[in-house]
Structures are given as structure tokens and as C-alpha cells.
Amino acid sequence: MSNGLFSRRSFLLSLVLLIATAIYLGCVLSPPSLMDDVDAVQAQIAKTMLTSGDWVTARLDGVLYLEKAPLIYWLMAIFYKIFGVSDWVARLPVALASIALALLSASFGMWAFGERAGFYAGLCMSTCVGLFLFTRIQIPDVMLTFTIALSLWAFLRALDEEEKRPRLWAAILAASLGNGFLLKSLVGIVFPVAAGLIYLFFSRQLISCRTWQRLRPISGFLIGLLIAAPWHVLATLRNPPFFAWTLQSGPGLYHGFLWFYFVNEQLLRFLNLRYPRDYNTVPRLYFWLFHLLWLFPWSVYLPAITKLSFKPVDRAGQTRLLALCWAGFILIFFTFSTTQEYYSMPCYPALALLLGSAMAAEGKWIDRGTRLLGATAALAALAAIAIAFAVRNLPTPGDISSALSHHPSAYTLSLGHMLDLTFDSFAYLRLPLCLAGAAFLVGAVGNLRWSGMRAFLASSLMMVLFFHAARLALVVFDPYLSSRPLAEALRSAPPGKLIVDRHYYYFSSVIFYTGQDPLLLNGKFNNLEYGAAAPNAPAVFLTDSEFKDLWTSENRYYFVAAEKGADRIETLVGKEHFQTVATSGGKLLLTNVPARSSSSPLPTAPRQSAAPLFPFSSIGNDVYD
Fold it and tell me: Which of the four pLDDT bands, split at 50, 70 and 90, describes residue 40?
């Protein structure tokens, strides 16, 4: 490789690194705080692993949490060990995985198509809406996407007759599959293996001895087994029974780790028979069409992909065919399974490779897409600036929760909470609106005036600015999405035991930020129900009568609940037993006080609608996989 070629490739990779770092490391800052629901739950599980020393069995509030593979928890706990326990540290593994995925997509594309196409693939991956949106919560899908992309690049390189180190790439393939298994169980293996087999079939290499000699499946199986097996064996041994030959799943049934992790979480979830059914499914048509949004702004170039050659006669054609098999299998798989929008994230690198190849080839469809994007950005800029101007004088009392509406029927969709925005609520978002308007203005000017690389760079800058506008919006939503203000109030209050109304997930950020292990009032359902049925499960679940006995005793307790649930508690123990410590985002922190002491009754002001968990995404306990 010449020095000039090396310098150009390094420069382009450095530019992808700079853009991805500006987005993903720039957005680990706090605030925004960790959100209630999955965001704080993941961080808390890793925190518990670190403090307890048990890195095998995940727990929430001492209750077995056997649903998920552990690698994301291990990475968080390692970062806690290095940098200390905090919310921004909890975000580092997902942020670094996002940056690594962008670099991997660029490197893969450069190897397959050349420097420009690879650079464009890296831009597509690092600045598409879907990757940003679905990494706002600490779920392992971006890490899984990285392992799948790496395994499939290693797959092609091991098969490449010009590759000088096929044995090394075969080992990388196997190691990637093993790590994928520790991130999200069977899909970490099924997706890349299925994509590879379909590719081998269409490229007429499936029954070739040479193919399997280069892929080394036996040694690869041993490498993957060495990586993935130890945790599965230990988790099985520590959480018996070891085997349960049944498909029966229901309330109060406990069959150990192995049954729950593989049968209930894999087989029964695929068949939509899992219990508890704590997830929703997105309509199939929406699942497909929303990729126009998840790949924005680069989805305007999707028609150009149809002009590419998919004949596996050279490295470029082989990569395009593999990318088609890769994306196609994942999309079709989830068409026939329970479906969430972010489930398809593992196909984003495949689509980014195809888009990068098409963008490098240029042509009329690329020019049309650039002009369409410019016009779209111009309209978006006009709308953002007009709204910011219209709300410039509107008052902003309290936090934004008081200005939002409530549309629960839309929350199955990741952007369903956008419908909660009202005209008055935009007054709280003046700065994010102005920054978003500036971002779209950059995109409009760049795409209407230029073409090719300059237009693509303008689009990338537009998205960097827009994502930081989104982060600023999340800061405004912080009291609504997170219960951190209640946690700060509790940390400043006299010592007392914490009780959480209903589900652990609903106020998980209080638990993370205070470090308390709470009691749960009527909280034995969804993710904690299975662990609650295990032998020797901790006695952290309270019935109404048990809560009443504790609350009216001499000991001090604190209680967090949504305002909408206050009437029920008031009826249960009487409002004379409550003192309000803090309110935030439609949520309450209350304490019990002796009857002889002065107390403040529950607020009598009109209650707000129930707060959704995430205005820009409904990724949460009910949909998380």
C-alpha cells in the first residue's frame, strides 16, 4: 500500500471517527439523567454486579433477573471500576460501540468498494437517525450489530482467495459469534450464520470443500464455545433446576435459568407465547416503512441501490450480495416474529454498505436524492424557526410535563410520544428548536448548492447539530423522563426506607441515584415476576395491607408514585398520614409522619396525564428485548 493511499484512507477514517465521536461521546454528558425504565435498570444491574461481586447472576432489588445475556452488564461494571459509578460512565459502552460500528462500516466498505464508498458507508452508519435514537437507552443492540457486522466481514475475508491470513479471519468470525451469543443469545449466531449460508447458496459455494476448509467450522465452534459456554454453565448451575422439559409458562411457575433463558425468552417469545407478555409488537407495514426514517438522511438514496450489480464476480459484487442476504434475512425474520422497530438494527451496516456503494457510483438517482434532501431540510428549517418564533413569549411555569398531552394508544411506536407534544410545550424547547433549525438550514444549503462529497458532508454536519439539539431537548424533558429530582430530594431527607409504587422499572432512576434497595408495592409482575417465584426470593414485595401496616408504624418510610396513583394510596391509608417531600414531572415523593405531627395532604391541584417513559421513543420495559 502506498503512503498516499494510506494517508487518504487514514484521513477518511479519522473523519468518520471525528463525526461519530462528536455525536456519541458528546451525548454521554449528564444531564440528561438516566431515564426511568430500562435505561436506569441496565445501569443498576451492572452496579449490583460490581458491588456484590456476583458477575454470573443478574439481580434487581435482590430478585433474580434471568432474561438477558450478561456482556453489556460486564462492560458497564468494568467502566464503573475504572471511572467510578455514575450515569455518564454507564453510557460509555454503548457510545463506544456506536463509534466502533461507524469505523467498522467504513473499513468494511473501503475493503470492498474503495475509499470513497467506505467513507460514505461510515457517514451513513454514524449519522442515521435509527442508530442515534436506539442508543439513547442502554440496550445491547448496537454491540450486537457490531459483532454481526464484524463476523460477516471476517466471513468474506476468510473466503477471499487474495487474503493472506484466512485462518486469522476465521478465528475472528468465531470469536464474534461467541461474543454475539453473550450479548443477545441465539440471534447473535442465527443472524450472521443464516446470512452467510444464504450467500453461499446464491454464490454457489455452499457445497464446496474449499469453502469449509477456509471457514474452519470445527475450530471456530471450539472458539465460540470457549467464549460463550462458561457463563451459561455457571448460570445454569447456580440457578437450578438444570433441565425442565416443558413449554408451560405461567404465574408462579419457576423452572430455573436454562428453561427461562432459552425456552421462554427465545422459543416462546418468537412464537409470541412468552409469559409474562411484557412487550408489544409493531405492525409489520410500519416495521418496514419506518426504515425510511431510521436511515434518514441517507434513505433518499435507497432507489440508487437498485442500479448496483449483485453478481459475486469480484469483491464488490460479493459484498453487495452478502449485504442483500444479510439485510433481507433479518427483515423477513422479524416479519414473522414479535417485532420492535429497533430489532432490525443489525441490518443497518448492510444497508449502509449498499448506500455507500451507490453514493460512490453517483448517477441521476443520487443527484435526485440530494435535491430531495435539500428541499426536505429547507422545509424542516422553516418549520423549526417558525415554531420557535411563535412561542417566544409563551410562559414556561414548572417543568415541561405540565404542558404535555397523553396518547397511550400510540406508545407502541418508538416515536409515539411525539404526539404528546402540544403547542405550549414548544415554549420549553426554544433552544433545541433554534439549534435544529440551524442544523436543517446547513443541510438545505449544502444539498441544494452542492453535490457529491460536499453535499454528503453537509448532511453529516446537519445530523451532528440535530442530534445535539435532540440532547438539549432531552435535558428539558429530564424531570419528565427521569426521577432524579426525587432522588436528590430523598438523599437530602432524614434516613428512611424507600417504597416504590407498582413496578421497579417505573422509578428505577430513583433507585440508581440513591443507592437504596426499595420495597415494591404490588410490584410482582412483568420482568420481576419469574424471579419472585424462585426459591429463597427476597421479601421485597408488599401487598396493600402490608404497606398500610408499615406506613402507619413509628418508622420513617418514603414512597414514590405517579400523581395519577395518589388517590388510591390516599384511600388506602388516609391523607393525614402523608407529607409531600418533593414533586417532579408528574411524580411524587411522600413520607409518613406521626398523626400528631403537622402534615401536608396530597396535592389537590389538577393532576397531569400519566407521563410517558420517553417522548422520542417507547423503548422500555414493555418492549425491551
Answer: very high
